[in-house]
Known about the structure:
The protein is of the alpha/beta class. It has one domain (4-151): Rossmann fold. The chain is 41% helix and 13% strand. It has 6 helices and 4 strands. Strands 1-2-3-4 form a 4-stranded parallel beta sheet, sandwiched between helices. It is globular and about 55 Å long. Its EC number is 3.4.21.26.
Amino acid sequence: xxxxxxxxxxxxxxxxxxxxxxxxxxxxxxxxxxxxxxxxxxxxxxxxxxxxxxxxxxxxxxxxxxxxxxxxxxxxxxxxxxxxxxxxxxxxxxxxxxxxxxxxxxxxxxxxxxxxxxxxxxxxxxxxxxxxxxxxxxxxxxxxxxxxxxxxxxxxxxxxxxxxxxxxxxxxxxxxxxxxxx
Length: 182
């Protein structure tokens, strides 16, 4: 409950290791995660925006102060805590991706993905997160949202899944300047 930050610290340490040991560079490092992994990506990109070239937070729990007010979110309070309880509020606020987007920071190129019928992690998380990013972000990196229609918490068809994956790869290749020769 009070150790969630260690997850983000470990992920950031792994990225730093990959860069330090020259497995990759900041200019070739993309991170992606969905649902709880979307929270992971959102928290890591707001805490260390300098580490990543491209980020893909998908259907993420981005508003840690209000997540428990929507659909099944109340059931996650055992894992995260509840901002309704004073001792949990500061802990949640410290890593909540939505609440840690800073003014005038150059964030990585970001493609947030969500679905309009997601009843597990409601799309409001992604909508609020991308709106805040677009308001405060500085620099030339695009910060965009992709909304899957008639879909829930995961792709609703193979075709939609292929479309989403294609969009993500195309976005990443474009941002990283990767050319494909046929």
